[in-house]
C-alpha cells in the first residue's frame, strides 16, 4: 500500500508540474502542441536520468517508483500527445503532414532525451 501511495503522490506532483509547465510554454504555430511536446521531452529526459541514477544504486526502488512512475508519469501525457496529433490531422493535407512530423519528432526526440538523461545520470542503458 505504501508503494501505491508513493505513485499517487508522485503522479499528483507530476500532473501539477505539467500544468504549470504547459501554462508557461509559448503557444505553437497553427495549433501545433508545442507545450505537450516539450512537457513530454522533459519527462523523457528526467526519466532517463532517474533510471540511470537508480541503476547506479543512488535511488532506492521506492524512490525510483515515486519519481519514475509517479512524477514522470504525471508530467508526461500520452493521451494529450495522441489528441494533439488527431487535432492536427483533422486539418487539410498540410495538417496531416504536420501531424505526422509531430509524431515522428516526438518519438525520435523522446528517445534521444531518454538517452541524454541516462548519460547525465552517469549510466548507459538501464532496465
Quick structural summary:
This protein has 127 residues and is mainly α. The chain has helices spanning 2-24, 34-55, 61-75, 78-89, 93-120.
Beta content comes to under 5%
Question: For the terminal residues, how far apart are their CA atoms?
Answer: 24 Å
Q: Globular, elongated, flat, extended or rod-shaped: what is the shape?
A: globular
Residue stretches low in confidence (pLDDT < 50, at least 5 long) are none
Alpha-carbon Rg, integer: 16 Å
Helix tally?
Answer: 5
Major sheet attributes: none
What would you say this structure looks like, in words?
With about 130 residues, this protein is an all-alpha fold. It has one domain (about 1-120). The protein has helices at about 1-25, 35-55, 60-75, 80-90, 95-120. The protein is globular and about 50 Å long. The two termini are about 25 Å apart. The mean pLDDT is about 90.
Name the descriptors:
mainly alpha, globular
What are the SSEs and their pairings?
Blueprint: H1 2-24, H2 34-55, H3 61-75, H4 78-89, H5 93-120
Helix pairs in contact: 1-2, 1-3, 2-3, 2-5, 4-5
